[in-house]
Description:
Blueprint lengths: L7 H8 L2 E5 L12 H16 L3 H19 L4 E12 L4 E11 L10 E7 L4 H21 L7 E6 L3 E8 L2 E5 L3 E2 L3 H11 L6
Parallel strand pairs: 1-7, 4-5
Antiparallel strand pairs: 2-3, 3-4, 5-6, 6-7, 6-8
Helix pairs in contact: 1-4, 2-3, 3-5
Amino acid sequence: MSFRDFDLTRVRNEFGLQWQVISLFETVPPVPLSSELAAYLRAVLPLGLSLTTEKARSELLTAPLLAEVWRRSHHQIVMLSGVEWEVDASLGLNGTADFLLCRSKMTFVIEAPVLVAVEAKRDSIADGLGQCAAEMVAAQRFNAQAGTPMDPIYGCVTTGSVWKFLRLSGIQLDIDLDEYTIHQPDRILGILLHCCGVSVS
């Protein structure tokens, strides 16, 4: 059993979560893209949207936005990609995390605190919600074990073209009512920076 075995019902039942669907980021402002990222997205968006594999979309559409968080945080938030992560295998809190954002400068290992878990899916946001929630529970426990508890923990499921965010505080799992598309990269970047506690002047 691993992160990939969880759906929303299973993660709720096994970890006693209460969940609701609400608007989470109505007051979070968009953040203008850097000129470099804006030019990159203009150039690759037609290709990224035409590809159908998770790997291709992750590389072309998801990773560049997450890397921008690293840049905007002055390298205080690191993006880790495709990492094996074992928090508690007896509970299924183990497996491959597509992307993790951590408050750390360490790029070789996962270091607490983990702030955001991002799960990439080929074409179904719904199929990734349980897996992402399980990774958020893992982050909650991982941070606590390291003596750096964080509340809340954020998560996101994305197809590269569509992004949906989650928030976990204690046992309360909030799923954002809204979805954001790659055609709103400034909104996505603003939310990611907010989730990581990065202020933008």
